């Protein structure tokens, strides 16, 4: 076989490989005109190589970030060195639909990109090659793991029954509000409240009905609070509210609204309709408490004073 025949054969094998490889290959001149477009790009774009050849890439794909890609290609050509970007930096260069059944949850193909310089016979960079890697499986798996971790983090902060902040998370915010007061001196109030005669509800109607009452109390309370207020389930049938920028009188008005809303409502449980009340204790923060726990103790003691005073009451801490 003559040398030219061997060379032609080798070129044929190389061309066949470039057409069948599962990587997108795009060769551009320095004016961004397409010089080569392999089978991967044809299959995913729906545009044949003959149709795209000598077309300016940005005219064919106007969604491509022109300024960004131009900077990248200019740097590659100037420095005669490769550049890389991952899907985490930019999810994709070409907006191809995801056609993989395994990762069908993702709408578009996630891509890693390599830009390589191609030198001519003089050694000057005349063209660049874009290599587009489909990394949808990797990206989808990582995104699913991140979503799962976010969900776990959320679960670790919230009470499963009510969706409110759990005791530990809420107490941390009480501590943060205490420190904020120490720094800025803004009025702030703390509320502790619980459901009156809750044991009787559980004993009479069962724990499932009791859970419905707890969820109802959380729902009614949250609907009567401002966006800046923070509600948490402290434990059992007891709840806590942080009311920033609120003095004792402002807190009393908010609490009376919550108390009346609960008193006037009916919980339709699977056992029987249940009417219930709550008792609430308010403590406006002053310089007296040495830490947030003493502030919470003031609110808690006031709550028990409200219960001792006949229940279904709002009581404000006084020294």
UniProtKB/TrEMBL annotation:
Keyword Kinase listed: yes
Superkingdom of the organism of origin: Bacteria
Enzyme class: transferase
GO function term, MF aspect, one: diguanylate cyclase activity
Catalytic activity: 2 GTP = 3',3'-c-di-GMP + 2 diphosphate
Keyword terms: Kinase, Transferase
Residue stretches making up the GGDEF domain: 186-319
Gene3D superfamilies: 3.30.70.270, PAS domain
Cofactor(s) of this protein: Mg(2+)
Enzyme Commission code: 2.7.7.65
NCBIfam families given in the database record: GGDEF
This protein's name: diguanylate cyclase
């Amino acid at each position: 076989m003559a040398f030219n025949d061997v060379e032609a054969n080798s070129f044929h094998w190389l061309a066949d490989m470039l057409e069948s490889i599962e990587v997108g290959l795009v060769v551009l001149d320095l004016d961004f005109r397409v010089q080569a477009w392999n089978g991967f790009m044809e299959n995913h774009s729906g545009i044949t190589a003959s149709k795209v050849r000598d077309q300016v890439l940005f005219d064919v794909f106007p969604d491509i970030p022109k300024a960004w890609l131009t900077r990248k290609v200019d740097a590659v050509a100037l420095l005669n060195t490769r550049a890389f970007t991952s899907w985490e930096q930019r999810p994709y260069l070409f907006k191809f639909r995801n056609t993989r059944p395994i990762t069908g949850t993702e709408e578009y193909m996630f891509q890693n990109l390599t830009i390589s310089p191609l030198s001519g016979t003089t050694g000057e960079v005349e063209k660049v090659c874009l290599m587009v890697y489909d990394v949808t499986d990797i990206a989808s798996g990582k995104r699913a793991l991140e979503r799962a971790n976010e969900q776990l983090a959320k679960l670790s902060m919230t009470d499963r029954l009510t969706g409110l902040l759990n005791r530990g998370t809420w107490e941390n915010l009480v501590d943060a509000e205490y420190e904020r007061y120490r720094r800025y001196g803004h009025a702030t109030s703390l509320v502790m409240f619980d459901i009156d005669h809750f044991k009787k509800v559980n004993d009479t109607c069962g724990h499932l009905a009791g859970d419905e009452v707890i969820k109802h109390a959380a729902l009614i309370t949250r609907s009567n609070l401002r966006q800046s207020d923070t509600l948490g389930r402290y434990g059992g049938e007891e709840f806590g509210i942080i009311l920033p920028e609120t003095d004792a009188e402002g807190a009393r008005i908010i609490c009376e609204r919550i108390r009346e809303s609960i008193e006037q409502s009916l919980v339709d449980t699977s056992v029987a309709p249940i009417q219930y009340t709550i008792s609430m204790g308010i403590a406006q923060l002053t310089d007296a408490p040495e830490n947030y726990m003493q502030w919470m103790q003031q609110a808690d003691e006031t709550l028990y004073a409200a219960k001792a005073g006949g229940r279904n009451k709002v009581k404000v801490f006084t020294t």
